[in-house]
Every structure is written in structure tokens, then in C-alpha cells.
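Quick board copy: two proteins, each given as sequence then C-alpha cells.
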Amino acid sequence: MTAGDEAASERPQMEAEASDHAVVTQVAGDYAEHHHNYVRGWEYLSAVGVGEDEIRLVEEAYVHTTRDDGVAQPVQRAVNALKRPLGQRNVVVLVGRPGTGRAATALRVLLDVGVSGKAIFNLVLDWDRPRTAQIPSTPGDGFILDLSAYRSLPKDFYEGLIDYQREAAKRDAYLVVLVTPETWKPGSAVATPAVECVGPSADEVARALVRHLAAHRENWLDELAELLGGATSPEAAARLARIIANPEIKKVDDAKSEYLNWNTYLLNWFEEHNSSEELRDRALLIAAALLERLPADIVMNAADRLFERVKGAVPPGGALAGLDLDKRLDAIGASRVDGDRISLSEERHALHESVLTHVWQQRPQLRRVLLNWASELSAPGGIAVKYLEHIADSVTRLAAGPNGGTVLQIVTKWTATDSKPHRRLAVGLLESMAVHPVIGAAVRKYLYDWAGQKNTSEALAQAIAKVCAGALGSEYPRVALTRLRILAARTDQRGAAEVAEAVRVLAARPDRRVLVLGEIVEWAQSEDPVMRQAGATAFLALTDLTGEEPISLSLAAELGGEPDVAPEDPLFVRGWRAAWRHEATAVQAQASLAAWLDSAEVSDEQVIDIAGAVLTGHLGDKGVADLLVGSDAITAVGRRRRRALFDRLLHAVAAPAEEPDEQQEQEQRTATAA
């Protein structure tokens, strides 16, 4: 049975080993604690709890697979594998085709081994390469890890499961891994038990769900029996059951039509509205589908723009010409909702999605026209500019369906055009596609590759950075940071301004400020010069004090507000040291620290502590004397702080009682000269 199961079998696959350049810092810590110690928040994958309704559905309506040969059904086999008498494994793999109900089976397995519904979590794959060290094992919790988007898994993942199994058993945690037969090829690398997941009959699944969700409509299944053949997957049966249970569906025929994506209805409609006089109605239907539940004037104007794009001639007289709105809505089967908004799906649930899919599939020569039209509508000054996200979501659904690759091809070309409307919608679409459950993994991989390619244009680099600052950074912060790291390391500095802004946006969330700063400081301290360049550049972006609400002040306040949980070596100190020692960013690091010394927005104690820690032991370094002596632009605050800093550094130099060595003498001379 399927309850929130994986996407359809045509989902793009992600190659696990193609993006093996991400750096993961492994430090011992508590998964549940996401406070200010930056190493803890990034150590493990984040987890999302399973909803109560979904848990209840699996508890009360799960259909067990039965076999005539007496072999135990998948749930029992998986439970036996997890709680075997001679040494618990605590890890099991469910192998099956998409749509066979693996997600529901995983939930049922975890419930049956005694994990509370509130303690079951889906893991968010905020990584570029599967690593067992990032899988949490908190006591009493159960985790579901869906790796179906990977064509293969790296060898060290299989090997790492051995150590994870020991840790999970010790902590009484459980892990269920979902894979396809093509994904799971462990060979002799791991002894993790794998259970084949074959779903029950579609009719059994549909009836169990309808009884649970809307028992009074179970008889509908008798009339829809033709839809549940032997080849129907449990996932498809679950979809039909939810359609039947939807109170917005009033008739059996409508349930059938929605299940079939309104195919027959739309084929008939387009055949009946085939005359040249009715082409304008077709444009209105498509506009209403793209702009479902938007104001009538926007939909009507958008329809006319589409009609003109296919060389249609709008009747003379403008808004005075033609039939009244209600007549035109009748022609396309739409209605008014919420006052003056237009909806296709009010009377035929989900029809608007099916219209776009139908046109996309049936009229391939119209695809580029539709995308250019959507770009025009959402452009600055466009009639639907306020609804860019709405339009992006609609187009993303097309990208996730059959022949959706066309969308990505066109969108990437848009990023390099001189057209601001096209670039704006391209960013919106890439952002939406990057977090989509079906195509997201593939799109994130494209973003990774583009970020490092030599021929990536300035426009594409800017687009990638903007995507990382948006939904991608919100849902997959480490994935976003990795792409920003690659961009920041580019010697051509393409997209540099957008990268700096994206880093600041990621650090703006209070729960991630110190986490992001800590990750970037790790880069800046790397032995790898490319990584060091990226880290130093990104760190200096976070220290920038310009703008209305600089993120550096929030970071400073957070680091200074709770010294008891701050790392021994403050992050700002480590970051500035690394940026100053890196030749390519030394001058910028000096200027950045000087700006902090001159700013009244940062407390005296904090900035002097930071500057003192950065400079102590390095007074002979290039630029130190310039920083201490300063320039004509120094503020009164800056002069006072420099005197205090100078006194502290002199005291640090004079403090040792023993005979000063040659380096100390040099530092003394430098300080005196300053």
C-alpha cells in the first residue's frame, strides 16, 4: 500500500559518485542539539517528522502482501531482520520499484518494531554524496532514508553501514533505507539485510484506504473497477482512493476523469472547439490553467497576449468587443470564485494542471511559445509580475512530467540572454525545480556542474547564486553552500557579487547564522588553496558592514551573547586570520577589520578582542602597521580603539619574562614604529 510513496518511475536519476567534491567535517556531537556550537548542526542530515494522519493511515489501513508459497510478507521479514535474536541489526533495506508502497512499508516496519509515530522521521538529503556518517542515530528514533534517486551508491557507503549498524544497535535507533533494484548493488561489501518490497493488489489498497477515508463511498470502487487492473501499482490505487475520498469530488464520473488526468474530457473539448473563431477560447483556457484562481482581469489580458503570440487578431474595440465574461467562462468550463477570480478546478478538481499537461504533450510546437509567454507575464511591469512564484510552480510541474527536459534546456538558455524578464523567470524556475521531489536531485546536480565549468557565463553564475539564496538554501543549506563555495573559488570571479549576497542570505536565518559562518571558516582554514580562496572570500562577505542591516552585526551579537557555548577559538578570529594569511584576500581582510575598528555599531570589547587575537603573534606581518596607524578616514571611535588595541598588543609582547626571541624583538620594533 502507498502512503506518501515515491514519485513515478520516470523520475530523473542522480549519479552518486559524480559530485564527490563536497567536504564534510565530522565532529562528535548531539544530533538533537542545534544551538550555537556550529559543528553540531551540520554533522547530521536534518529530519522531518511524519504527519499524524499518515501514521494513522498506516496503522489502520495498511494492506499486507500475502504470498501463496508461505514466504513471510515484507513487513514481517523486515521486522525479523531488525530484531533478530542473535544480534540486532537495526538497519534494513527495502528494495522495490517506485510505486510499490515502500514508504508506507517503511512506516509500518518502524511502528511494528516499537518506534513511536512521533519518533519516526524522513531524512532530508542535504548532501551531494551519500555518507553514512551523516545519518543520525538518536536513541529511540526511527529514520527513513530514500536513496531511490541514485543510480548507484559509493563503495564507502556500503562499508559505512557496518559501523552505523553497531551505533544504531547501541543506541536503540532504527534505519530503513529505500532503494530500487538498480540502486542497491552491495556485492560483498556489506551484510545489511535487504527485503524485496512487492506491493499488494491495487483493489485491496484502494478499498482499505477508501474505508478509512470515506467509507460511504466504497461502492464507487465497484463502478471504477476497470481502473484497477493487475498492472495497476499500489501508488496509483492510493491516488484513486484519495480522489474518491475528496469531498470536492461530487460524482463518480468526475473521480474517474481526474484519475485519468481529464484526458477524455480535454480531447473532446479541443475537438469541439476547433474552429478559427474558437482559438481565442483556447487561449483563455490555457491562461486560466496557468493562472488558476488569479483575478479575472489578469487572466483575460494574459489570454489575449497568448492569442497575439500565435498571430491571432484581437477583435477591434478592446474590452468592449466580444462576449461577456460569464459567457466566455462557460465556453471553457470555468467559474468565478472568491469574488472575481477565475478557476477551472472549482468544478473539475485539478483540471488546471491537466490542461497544461495536455497542451504540452499534444502541441510540442507550442512549448517554447508557452514558456516565452509565461516569462512575459511575470516580467517586471508584466501583468502577472506579482505572481512569479505561482507561474514558476505551474511550469515546474511541466518540467517534472514527460518531455519536461525541454523546460530545463530553455531555462538555462534564458539565463544567458539580455532579456531581464527571461533571466528573472529562469531563476524562479530553477529555484522551484531544484527543490522538486521528482526532479530536484537531477537539477541540483546540474547546478553543481555548472558552478564549476570553465565556460559558465557570468549570467549563469549569477543565476546559480540566486537559486542558492532562495528555496534551495532554505531547504538544502549544505547543498547550497557547496555550490556557492565552488562559485566563490572561481578565479574569474564570475557571479562574485551575487555569491556574496547569497552567503549573507543563508546566514540571515537565526538558527543557521553560526552554522554557516563555521562552515565557511573551515573552508578558509583548508590546506587546499582552492577551498581556502572560497572560504576567505565568503568569510569577508559575512563581515561586510555596509547595507541597512548587515548580517555581520547579527553574527557578532550571537557570538558575543553566549560566550559559554562559543568555540575556544572564536570564529571571527579564525576567519580573519585565515583571510589575512591568504595572499589573494589579505588586503581585503585588513580593510574589513579596519572597518570594524571604525564602526560604532560593534562593541568596543568585541572588536578589540577579535583584532587583538588576530594580530597577536603576527605583528610583523604585512599590513599590520597600516591597520594600527590607519588613515585620514579613521573615526574618533577608531582612533580610541586603536590606542587600546596598541596597548594590548604591547602588553602581550612584553609579557614573557624570559629573554625575547628574534620574532618577539621584531614584533616589538613593529609595534613601536606603529
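And the next:
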Amino acid sequence: MKTDIEIAQAAKMRPVIEIANKAGIDEKYVEQYGKYKAKIDLSVMNDTQKPDGKLVLVAAITPTPAGEGKTTTTIGLADGLARIGKRVVTALREPSLGPVFGIKGGAAGGGYAQVVPMEDINLHFTGDFHAIGAANNLLAAMLDNHIHQGNALGIDTRRITWKRCVDMNDRQLRNVVDGLGGRINGVPREDGFDITVASEIMAVLCLSLSIDDLKDRLNRIIVAYNFYGQPVTAGQLKAAGAMAALLKDAVKPNLVQTLEGTPALVHGGPFANIAHGCNSVTATRLALKLGDYAVTEAGFGADLGAEKFLDIKCRAAGLTPSAVVIVATVRALKMHGGLAKTELANENLTALEKGMPNLLRHVSNIKNVFGLPSVVAVNRFPTDTDAEIELIIEKCRALGVNVVLSTVWADGGAGGEALAREVVRLCEEEKGSFKFCYDLEDGIEEKVRKIVTKVYGGTDVSFTPAASKQIAELTALGYGGLPVCVAKTQYSFSDDPTKLGAPDGFTVTVKNVKISAGAGFIVVLTGDIMTMPGLPKSPAAEKIDVSSDGIITGLF
């Protein structure tokens, strides 16, 4: 059986200019990065008269270590739509180097449903993440330089909220003390690093509509508080212009292709816990302008990724999805039914049936909370038995749940044709009535309570005294009308990763609340969310190598 990278390297890619032409992009808007990658100038949207296509969101059940294949399904669906004669563009997130070298490996799809050149996309790509890291660290340097040069803004060094970042899993950098070595080397203080995808600048870039909007958002970023408890912003440090200069190319969407030559915009990748976990607004809007169908995805399970896509991204960008695909696997549902990862290769209909409520709650949320039509895509793995596949389909149909088998990992676009036809039917025939989970006029506590009770299936929310104080402060500062971004474990509807399936009767505890003023949302932390991951005992990096002729191996 070929590995993902072997399949990708065997593919015959088309020059990116051909892909741009296929997508309807004039060559004057294409900035090539070699033969197979390009950035697309944002002015193309002003010159495109075609009405927007249909927006299709791909989400998934609650993630497990067994994997769900959401990106693979997104790519396979796009290829399936192309195979049945539809004009389609897919919009995806860029992978982070942390997971690539850590535990997950690459994030460019899998099997015969991939975007290529997969090695470039998974590694340096077009340099977007490096630009974001440089802008983040420029702001950190200007912050500490301001303090060193006299601290005219009265910044309280005990209340600095801005961290440095690097796009690598490095637990050693989570907590550091810097500025040591005497007066000329800065002011000693406690500091730390986030992984680049957790930087607020990543979320800012992904939600910006233009360069001007980018600069406005950068100006609003809060980096610290002064001795009077007032926020200090990047604008006050006069950093936004230089940061925007570093990001002027990173803000442009990247054009690549699937294995079957379908145009793909791969751009941005904010952390799906402390941020909204979707590709950039500019890439999604461009995909809608270019295609009759735009297929995109949201991070983690539908309770996190889809909720944030719908309540934050769609609200900010004025987007309305036409249909939602919920990806499920036999393996993951068996884990939700109590089966250990080591036992997943064995047929177990009892565990599979016990795990079904997790899928059904996600389906119910999309229909009843957000008012959108959906279809379940059962992403088939080689170890799945016919009896297991039939059980999922039978149970779904008995409950009136729309379900289609997907074999895109093994068969590429051909394995996604049935799913594509159903998505087209949903978009054309089943008009949804899209609504948000909460209103912006709701207080911060009420917004969180609505998400917990309506989407997670919990009973109530408990706010620690620290969180309640933070909510009061943010409301007093005028931030109470922003959407909320709940940071919790991705492995459960609850804030307890051990509660699998579809738990109920639980209370979610909010420990901390902070503001991402540039991104434009409030982050609600329900547990110990790690913004700088560490490498596992046997990191994926140990298996990656490059030959004397430049061929990379071991990359997933």
C-alpha cells in the first residue's frame, strides 16, 4: 500500500497557471512561487462579476485518536463535484509545522484525495507562517523596547499578555524568564512562547477582508495593561504599519491543486481551540467568486469548528452556508462506544451502536440550532467491515438522518461522486434557514450558556471568581458585544476529555476569559488549553528525511 507522500509524488501536476485558468483567474493576478504554487492578488475579487456560488461546510463528529478524515473528505468532495460537471474551488487551512513534526504528520489530505505539492504545503509553502511569526515577534520586541526606553505608556510588566511565537512544538519555551544580563539587555520579566498558529495575528489575518481591515485589526490588538488597568494596544506602540508590511503578501490566498487538478486555495490556519479554526475569509470569498460551489472545512468536531465557523466567521464575513457535511468513521464511533484504540481493527457492532449518539447530536445541532441541511459522510477505512458500514447507514436512515458512503481515500473523486450529488441536491432543493446560536446583544455569560446548553448538550455553566471578574472588566471596557470563542477539549462535548459519546447533565466550568480585540472575539477558556504543544516520545520528525536529489521521505 502506497503512503500519502508516495501517492503525491507520483502525481502529474499541472502548471499553476493552468489551474488559475481553470478557476477563471486572469494571469495578471497570479504571482507564481515556482511551477505549482501561486499567490492570488486580492484585486481579482473587484474585477470578478460572477455571482457567488454555493458554500458547503465540511465538519465532523467529535475527534478521536482514530482519525476522521475531514480534510480528505473535503478534497474528495471537491473532486467528486468536478467529476459530475460542477465548477468547484475548495478552500483549506495551511498545516502547522508543529503537528507535521510532532504526532499528526501532514495535513494536506490523504490517500487519493490530497492537495499537491504536498511536501511544500506541509513545510514552508509560500512563507505565510514565517511572516505571521515575524509580525508577532516584531510586536513583542517593540513592546519590550518601549518598556526599556522609559515606559511612557506606564505598562505594568506583571500584566503583559503578548507572547513571542515559533511554529514548532517546543515545550521548553512555554515559560521563560528574559531580559537578564544587566540594564542594557532589557527589563527582566516572565515571558513565554505560543506556537505560531495560536498567535492572535493568525486569527487577525484569517478574518481580515483587506489590507486596510488588516491594519485596523492589528491596531486593536491588546498587548498589556497599564498601572491603571487600562489596555495597551499595538496601535499605541505604533507597530501596526510595520506588522502589516511584513504581512502584505501573506494576506493573499495561495493557489494549488488537488491530485485531480481541482483548484484549491490553501490559506491560513488558526488554532481551532483558542481561535476559530478556519481558513481565511479572503480564500473562502474568492472560492465563492470563482466556483459555482465552494467547499471548505472547520477544525475539530462540529461543536467547536462548525460552531465557530458559523457564529464567528460567517457573522464577520456575511457568509451563509448552503449545506453542511458531517464526516464520521466506523473507527471513531467505536471509540465513542468505549472501544480501545488497539481494538479498532476488529468488527464490533455493539461498540459502534453505542457510539452513534455522538454523530446524532452533531446532526441535530446543524439542523435544529443553526437551521442548515446536512448529510453524513461515512468515510470508509480499509479495516471497516461491510456489516459495520451497513449498521451506520441503517441506523441513520431509520432516524431520518441523511447519509452517504464516501471512499475518497481509496478512490479519489470517483469515491466522492455520490456525496457530491447529495450535496448538490441539498444546495438546490433544501433551502435552509440559517441562524446563529446566540445574539451579539446577549451578555458574555449568556452567550457561553447558550453554546453549552444548545450545542454541547450541557446543563449549565459555572464561572470561577476570576472568570466573572474578567467578564465584568471586559464588559466595562466595551467588549461585551463581541462573539465568543470557547476553548475546550476537542475530545468531548463536555470540558472533560474522558466523557465520550454524547454526555448530558454536565456543567462546563469557565476558568478564564480573555480578549482577542484584533481578531474581534472573546476567548473563553474552560480547561488547561495548551498554546505551545510538546513533541511526543517518538516524534514524526524522526522518520522524515531528504535524499541527495532532494526527494523528501517519511512525511506521512
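Board note added afterward: The mean pLDDT is 94.
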